Amino acid sequence: MFAGLLLESRYREKKRRLYAVMISAGLSVFVTLFNSAALFSYVTIAFGIISISAASFLLYRCKFTHALLITAFYFMCMNYLDFLAITLTGAFLHDPDYSRTVVSEYGFMRIRQMFICKGLSGAAYLCAKHFIKGKFRPDSMKHYMMLTAAGGIGVVYLMESSIEQVNDTDVISWIIFSVMTLFSWILVYLYEKSRHEADMMRFMEMRNALLEENYKNLSAAYSANAKVYHDFHNHIHILRQYLMRADTKSAQEYLDSISEPVKSLLERTWTGNEVIDVIINSKLKKMEEHNIQTHINVEFPNNSDILPGDICTILGNLLDNAIEACQKNEKTENKWIHITIRIVNAMLIFKIVNGNEKALQIRNKQLVTSKADERFHGWGLKSVTSAVEKYEGVLQHTIEEDRVTAVAALNYNIVNRC
């Protein structure tokens, strides 16, 4: 259940809890067998860490390393709370053998201490549920692993000291260790938070820059078109004069000259959606400059609630990535892009397929940037992912022998516009 606070579950809540209870019941049988040999053993702890890591890995569909980290952290906290409570209780009762009795013998003291320890564990779970749910970031794993390892070593050392004999020195040691550990975790949390905020700010800046670049292309087309409409009456007057003199050749040449600014961008209507049509036509011009062959099969729903800015982000960035990949291809036959936009079961599907010669890597069904520092590259795809998620959609990449396929699937609604 603690792992479920930090790892995204793919099961429904009730189903997940049922599986968690069933797995816990099964593991408790094995723990009981281990306890029949020794009530406290590091072998039992090692078994718990490995088995619960495997259970979390299967139940929450996460990486095993993340499940192992969370389980190790859980056991560190559990043993910390247990032996801190045992030490404090032994010191309060002035019983130097209290720890040894609790961990090695059945009896009233052990049962009483188990209620105390499990009560603390339950309270810790509720606190964790309130404060840290959904805040675990895998990219911070190495720092959390270092803290968990250091904390685990400290807990084991204090456990051994407390088992031998409980005294006031042990209580002071536990208090000092608690303060140092808490302070270390707070420092790492603040560092990771500031680092994440800095990355998000950089992400937003680069996303805005990408949007601005795409909007500049759209703006250029609309500005050119606006100039034509602004001078519409003057153009009509000049054409009328040519035609009144029966100078059709000059009239035709004049028409060609005033339509040239927007001819390249609006020469073909693909879907009737101006944003999509302008993006496709502008990217086609770039593809032609680099001798990239294209195949286009597109449609777009009328009056959808998908914002023009999001269309620009998704289609513009996916095409930019495909064009960049084709530019790196050495063989002419691998310089091609297929563009498909289809409506399938009330979903809008953007599918971009391009030829590929480079070795690429997929992580979580998305391309991994080939740049040296992943944190500061691949922002185009991050922008696409952010736009797709607004419509409860998914972005997936697949790599075949000679091609890369990017598919963005979006849910949309039809809205009535007056």
Q: Which strand-content bin applies to the residues?
A: 5-15%
Please tell me what the overall shape is: elongated
Counted beta strands = 7
- Rg, Å, rounded: 32 Å
Distance between the termini: 51 Å
* Main sheet record: 5 strands, mixed
Task: Provide the residue-averaged pLDDT.
Answer: 78
Low-confidence stretches: 371-377
Order of helices and strands: HHHHHHHHHHHEHEEEEHEE
- How many helices does DSSP assign? 13
Helix content, binned percent: 55-70%
**Main sheet: strand order:** 1-2-3-7-6
Estimated structural class: alpha+beta
Give a structural overview.
With 418 residues, the chain is α+β, with helices and mostly antiparallel strands. The chain has 13 helices and 7 strands. The strands form 2 sheets. The chain has a 5-stranded mixed β-sheet. It has a two-stranded antiparallel ribbon with strand order 4-5. α12 (308-328) links the parallel β1 and β2. α5 (98-104) packs across α6 (108-131). The two termini are 51 Å apart. Mean pLDDT is 78; it is low at 371-377.
